[in-house]
Amino acid sequence: VRDAIKNAKLNGLSNVEFFAEDVNKFLLNHPEYAGKIHTIVLDPPRSGIAPKALRRVIELGASRIVYVSCNPATQIRDAVTLEEAGYTLDRFSLVDQFPHTSHIETVGLFIKTKKNDNATTAAGGATANEAPAAAYAATGSAGAA
Fold first, then answer.
1. Which of 38, 69, 92, 138 is buried most deeply by CB count within 10 Å?
2. In terms of residue numbers, what domain contains 126?
3. pTM
4. Is residue 145 part of a domain?
């Protein structure tokens, strides 16, 4: 968070706030943010975000959710929930942080849409369910190191 604050100052940004907190605790401690958050970055553990916590994140109504995952299998599960809640996978990327291993990180950008028509993405036509599945198929792993 300190680096994020420093970076914001260096770039002249004054309308941002940063939090590094368990999502459940944050949602309990800061109900005043519901409906006011533009972007949420999720980087859950290998087991994925807890279903109840994901529902609470969705209730915040952010227009963008960046979901970083070390396990495409749990990202698929959570992506389906996001899609059902009206988010569309806009971009998806694989990040090879650990070369010569089967471990990959996946990053998905989900955009809140007015209606969920299971739209395809500009990045290859994959739906939220298909992109992490394709990552899983390409690596033959669920992101295990």
1. 69
2. 16-139
3. 0.69
4. no
